Amino acid sequence: MKGSNEGNSDHRRWRLFRPTSDTVMHLAAMKHIDLCEMYPLEAITTDVLGTKILLDLFSGDTFIGMSTDKVMEATNCYGATKLLTEKLILDRAKKKIRGIW
Description:
101 residues, mainly alpha
């Protein structure tokens, strides 16, 4: 993956883990609405950038991404990050890149 995430410790761990992983169940995200509103950059980094890194490196057979009902009417930072995360996953699925979506 190109860009500033090359030195990211999560990125390095994933590169070590990836060769033996056929399935990814992505559940990691900020869960507290008040924290997402207080620290929007952290919410974007955790939810959106974290998902993008996983999708960029994913080469297995199955990628499972959990969503939330807050996505339907994203009126705050919490809902917006969940919506962007869902859109990233759906966009990847539409491209029909290897795997089950």
